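PROTEIN SPECIFICATION:
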Amino acid sequence: MQNNSSSTLKVFILLAFFTTTTISTSISLNSINMADNAEQSSSSPSSTPPSSGVYIVYTAEPSGGAEPESFHLSTLSSVLGSEEAAKDSLVYVYKNAATGFSAKLTPEQVAQIEQQPGVLQVVESKPLKLHGRGGAKNMKI
């Protein structure tokens, strides 16, 4: 009976590992795709200055049952000056494996947003190149 319990535990650990790896890879690849799309669309006129880049802003869970997107727009609005500018800057809202958002920001705006309550970390979203034969098309993502 103990051998069966040990096997079950091993299967559970393997599933937990693969689930965590899959979520992490999925977040990274989604961030890469969104950053690429945001950089391509940034050539069109917008309220964001041309020296901006795409940054991932990790935040604490919103308190009081607030919706993540509302909390993120409020945080961005406090730096950008209006909700409309925040919506124009927003690239993506993370609410499953991590809480945060991606937005087009200038270095000055990054410095300001890092000081906002609930902001844990701000990192630049950089495209990464996958190595291997066939690239992403063989990953069936």
Observations:
- Residues 2-41 form the longest helix (40 residues).
